[in-house]
Amino acid sequence: MNGNQPNEATARIRFAAADLAPDPDDIEDNLLRARTKGRDLMLKIPSLKDRPVVNGDTVTLVLDGEELEDTSFSIVDPDAPIPLMLSAARHDQSGRYQINYVIRYLAGGGQSETGPRDQGFVADYEPPGLPFLASPVFYFSPDDGLTPDRLDPNGNLIALVPGYTGLAIHDAITPLIDGVEGAPTIVTELPVEGSLIHVIYPGTMLSGLSGSHDFAYRIRDRAGNVSADSRPVSMNVLLGH
């Protein structure tokens, strides 16, 4: 490493796209899908061509400041992508992890340098709403039954969901009637403290219903964790279909 070289490599570690949760806002937080728990992850450094690497130099993963010696990869083609394996045991807990790599130069007498220092990923394996989800709340007393005047102008039933453990942007709240799913409501902003989240039971779910039915909901977060169903509210449907 001469004086003209930067003090760290610029190439960033890449995760397989299939292992990352959808990223609608392009925040690039490297949130792992929940299904990656218990699986080894194949990571990749696309190239180190901006560094003076040669055959025999090594690249090793660094996780939360610890070099993972068992991941060390000996370079055989300086222009080729570098595969690095992150074992299942290294990401088995929910939380934020810092990740990097260190290059050791064989010809440089053991000199080393790292990749960009702002790299990381997030593991989230906890279903939202623990220990349980509260019942949906309605603008009227469910004991009085669901009548046409309690629907919105579009024929939908509006419910309110209290805050819950793990509430986050892009959670999908799915309405349930007798366990049958409707179209989910996506959380687009976090409610202010003490306020509730609006959830829609579409009119298509209500069509043809009469008598007593159970209204509940479940939540799927961006990582793919799915909650248990909420506590239901039993309500007599009196829509006169």
Short description:
This protein has 241 residues and is an all-beta fold.
Level of helix content?
under 10%
Distance from N terminus to C terminus (CA atoms, Å) equals 78 Å
Q: Indicate the overall shape.
A: rod-shaped
Instruction: Write down the domain tally.
Output: 2
**Average pLDDT rating:** 91
The largest β sheet comes out as: 6 strands, antiparallel
CATH architecture heading of the largest domain: Sandwich
Structural class: mainly beta
The poorly predicted ranges are 1-6
- Tell me the strand percentage band: 25-35%
Discrete helix count: 1
Rg over CA atoms, rounded to whole Å, is 25 Å
CATH topology of the largest domain: Immunoglobulin-like
Order of helices and strands: EEEEEEEEEEEEEEEHEE
Secondary structure layout plus pairing:
Layout: E1 14-15, E2 41-45, E3 58-63, E4 66-67, E5 73-74, E6 82-86, E7 95-104, E8 112-114, E9 120-123, E10 137-138, E11 157-161, E12 172-177, E13 180-181, E14 185-186, E15 197-201, H1 203-206, E16 211-220, E17 233-237
Antiparallel strand pairs: 1-2, 2-6, 3-4, 3-5, 3-7, 7-8, 7-9, 10-11, 11-15, 12-13, 12-14, 12-16, 16-17
What does this 3D model show about the protein?
- The chain is mainly beta and about 240 residues long.
- It has two domains: about 110 residues, Immunoglobulin-like (Sandwich); about 100 residues, Immunoglobulin-like (Sandwich), CATH 2.60.40.
- It is built from one helix and 17 strands.
- Strands 3, 4, 5, 7, 8 and 9 form a six-stranded antiparallel beta sheet that branches.
- The termini are far apart.
- The N terminus is likely disordered.
